Amino acid sequence: MFSLIIPVYNEEDLIDELAERAINAVESFTSNYEILFVNDGSTDSTLRKLIEVRKRFSRVKIVDLSRNFGHQAAFTAGLEMAMGNYVAMMDGDLQDPPELLAEMFRMINDEGFDIVTGKRKGRKTKRHRIATNLFHVFFKKVAGLVEVENAGNFSMLNRSAVDALVKMKESIRYLPGLRSFIGFNQGFVEYIREDRAGGEPKMTFGKLVLLGADAIFSFSKFPIKVCLVLGMIGTLVFLFAGIYVLVAKSFGFALIGWSSTVLSIYFLGSIQLIFLGVVGEYVYRIYKESQNRPIYLVKKFYDTETE
Ligand code: UDP
Ligand code: MG
CB-based burial of residue 120 (10 Å sphere; 0-12 exposed, 13-18 middle, 19+ buried)? Predict the structure, then answer.
């Protein structure tokens, strides 16, 4: 059995086209499948449209979350509920071409990969392109994970890789990072990321920055290192300044130095605030994880039995 997970949040304009293309693409390589739409608390007619689709295609299932949990949580819900021996994750705005799934499926079956990821070799969208590319290069450097550069959620995994991913219980989640972290035999297919087929992007620039911060704070010590290095440089500078002052005093120069005093107070003060912010970020993350709350909550699961 093959499972395709698609999170959707207020995508009413796209559901029909999305379902049709996804079903056609999947049926090109298997007839034993389920398509799990995870409705991430949509406030428009997305759920109604999905229920309509389900009437025509019984292999379509809907996981209706109790509110908007964010798309990493929505994918997680799908991963935990998918029953397939092969599971794919795909965005619901057709930026990831469903037609690529056949190639991923072939690579897992014939070439012995456990995970096949879509690697973006180009983007049609201008939106946030520079920022996204910079993030991926930087993240690869600081996290030191193999080959996560320019890979998003679009991917297919076999059962053992899915089970490994589902074991990662942290509530602050960055799935592309976790997917690299678990290891296994990972392969790639390159593709050009399309423009959204319609509707507005649901990940605003702000949400993307927060996701990027989650990635960096969860997968690297980079922020701590920056603090330490800056702290050490600061200490050295002030050590030398101190020696200079002592020497100058003993040779009898008069010290006027109002501006140097005030500037160094400002400088030290602001550095300390930044460091406190970084420490706060870690404390917040420890707090979040220790609460141990569920990553998502399901209002209703529309699978084959229930209606
Ligand atoms: N999405 C979601 N919950 C959210 C935000 C987005 O389920 O809170 C879904 C959205 O419907 C889409 C996918 O996640 O299917 C990717 O969202 P989007 O296209 O806005 O992200 P981007 O392509 O800009 O990264
Ligand atoms: Mg998109």
Answer: buried
Query: Are 212 and 279 part of one and the same domain?
Result: no
Task: Please name the residue whose Cα sits nearest to atom 13 of ligand 1.
Answer: 91
CA atoms within 13 A on the CB side of 22: 30
For atom 12 of ligand 1, the residue with the nearest CA is: 92
β-strands 60-65, 298-302 pairing: antiparallel
Question: Ligand 1, residues 11, 89, 91, 211: which to mutate, most atoms within 8 A of Cβ?
Answer: 91
Q: Give me ligand 2 centre to Cα 124, in Å.
A: 11
**What confidence tens digit (pLDDT) does each residue in 104-122 have?**
999 999 999 999 999 888 7
- Is 307 among the domain residues? no
Q: Check whether residue 23 and residue 138 sit in a common domain.
A: yes
Instruction: Give the mean pLDDT of 185-195.
Output: 88
Give the chain's domain count: 2
**Average pLDDT of the chain to the nearest whole number:** 88
Nearest CA to ligand 1 atom 19: 201
pLDDT in tens, 237-288: 888 888 887 888 787 766 677 777 877 887 888 788 888 888 888 888 888 8
Ligand 1 atom with least separation from CA of 11: 11
